[in-house]
Amino acid sequence: MMVCRLNKSLYGLKQAPWALYSRFAMFLVTLGFTEAKSDTSLFLYRRGDETAYLLLYVEDIVLTASSQHML
């Protein structure tokens, strides 16, 4: 399990959703995910023939993959 620590509180600021998204997106890229061209909230992780999909919507994360061990 990965946890991100914020250096300052973002809650309540009008730019908070974008700031959280951009920070989390950068974190996913460091893990090897790529942002989908069709949807900026969809991230793909490919290893060989297997693929994992991560969808970020507001504060919810949906993760699915082509095999159990990719989860």
From TrEMBL:
The Reverse transcriptase Ty1/copia-type domain, residue ranges: 3-70
Pfam family, one: RVT_2
Stated name of the protein: Reverse transcriptase Ty1/copia-type domain-containing protein
